[in-house]
Design brief:
Elements (H helix, E strand, L loop, with lengths): L10 E6 L8 H14 L4 E4 L5 H15 L4 E6 L10 H13 L2 E4 L8 H11 L3 E5 L6 H11 L3 E4 L8
Helix pairs in contact: 1-2, 2-3, 4-5
Length: about 160
């Protein structure tokens, strides 16, 4: 599903809710990615969903303006996931896809488990998980729990204090 060229220890995956309650998520992501870059993280995997996935992908693209070695790789559930989104949401999505280093689909069409497959592929390709988790149920909670079971450290952006 995701190929990371043996650099899993330099790879971060993102998972988070579609609704973001914090107004400072973009700033938190910018600071976090800058710090992770200094620690050697160069590859960032995003799942392409609305909300946190989009914010995370945009933050990686902003970081790439300063650090050319940063790479955004999209791991998407299926072609056409944005079909029911607004025109503005689709435009942002397509722009992110154009700017990503790679786009991988975990399924060729929508299936009942395609988002679950995408979430596992994100975790399986990474050495660190950055989440926006405020609810203990749903896809994000499952993905965070899966990441922990796979031995990944998880940084929850929703709980970071100040400039951490």
């Amino acid at each position: 599903m995701t190929e990371n060229d043996g650099s899993r220890e330099q790879t971060v995956c993102f998972t988070g809710h579609r609704e973001i309650r914090r107004s400072d998520v973009a700033e938190r992501l910018d600071a976090l990615i800058a710090g992770l870059y200094l620690k050697g993280y160069r590859i960032y995997l995003a799942g392409g969903a609305l909300g946190f996935d989009t914010e995370a992908a945009l933050a990686v693209l902003r970081a790439r303006e300063k650090h050319l070695r940063i790479e955004l790789r999209l791991v998407l559930p299926f072609p056409g996931q944005s079909a029911n989104w607004s025109g503005e949401q689709r435009a942002v999505y397509e722009d992110i896809k154009r700017k990503a280093a790679s786009v991988t689909y975990t399924s060729l069409k929508y299936t009942r488990g395609c988002y679950h497959t995408r979430n596992r592929a994100l975790v399986d390709g990474a050495g660190l998980c950055v989440a926006y988790l405020v609810k203990r149920s749903g896809g994000t909670a499952y993905t965070v729990d899966y990441a922990r079971r796979q031995g990944l450290a998880v940084i929850n952006v929703a709980q970071l204090q100040g400039g951490e």
